[in-house]
Write a structure and sequence with these properties.
Layout: H1 3-33, E1 39-43, E2 47-54, H2 66-86, H3 93-116, E3 119-125, H4 135-153, H5 155-158
Antiparallel strand pairs: 1-2, 2-3
Helix pairs in contact: 1-3, 2-3, 3-4
Length: 166
Amino acid sequence: MDKKSVIRLVTEFALIVVLIAVDQISKRLVDIYIPLGNTVPLWEGVFHLTSVHNKGAAFGMLAGSFWFLVAVRIIASMAMAFLLVKNVYKWPVLLRACITVILAGAIGNLIDQIALGYVRDMFDFRLINFAVFNVADSYITVGTFFLAVLVIFFPHKALKEEEKGS
């Protein structure tokens, strides 16, 4: 692997570490300042910070399936990390950025799942009665959205092989 490839990978994995740190710090701050089940309205009736423990996947699905969720999260994280390394020059930077952000979210929630047995959620968007979510969930959602846009609307750019020196 050449020097530019190593620099790209180190940059991507450093970004993953920073994003995971932001996720974990936000969750820890909620643990410290908002007791479980309590809520702090930031905009009454629209957006609250609510301390919730989610023992399942998105929207509480598969609650009680601890080992299955851990296995899926580990396999998905390893697959994304492998793909980033394997395709360091085959995939354009935007495609790799999407995978990087999704991977950070997956690992952030995996850390909670393994360490605590649940994922800590706090963002409570009440205007549309949406599920409570966290920073890692946001990474996964935003990364997946932009990945879908890239692949659906710009497939020639998303799947184009980069020049080795760029």
